[in-house]
Amino acid sequence: MQADFQTRRSGAIYRGQCKIINGRPDGIGLKIFNGSSLYEGFFDNGQCNGTGRAISSKGEIYQGEFKTD
Q1: How far apart are CA 42 and CA 28, in angstroms?
Q2: How many CB atoms lie within 10 A of CB 51?
Q3: Fewest C-beta in 10 Å: which of 5, 12, 33, 59?
Q4: Residue 3, CB half-sphere, CA atoms under 13 Å: how many?
Q5: Distance CA 26, CA 16 (A)
Q6: pLDDT tens sequence across 34-48
Q7: How many CA atoms lie within 13 A of 53 on its CB side?
């Protein structure tokens, strides 16, 4: 598990579990998209997948299941 946030190619920052082979988010983590919205929960090969919570830049919250982003 990464202790510090790392900048992704998309410009988002991520902290959490990653695949050893390709470095993509995989497992539990927190991703902040361009400093305005975030997702915390489960990832599968770099995509939001499983139980999680998203908060939009407007403050809207969705908590539940995500499938392939």
Answers
A1: 5
A2: 11
A3: 59
A4: 0
A5: 8
A6: 878 999 999 999 999
A7: 6
3-state secondary structure the chain: CCCCCEECCCCCEEEEEECCCCCCEEEEEEEEECCCEEEEEEEECCEEEEEEEEECCCCCEEEEEECCC
This prediction has a pTM of 0.87
Strand partners, 61: 55
Two tokens, residue 49: 């997948």
Q: String of b and e for 20-34 (b: at least 16 CB within 10 Å)?
A: eeeeebbeebbbbbe
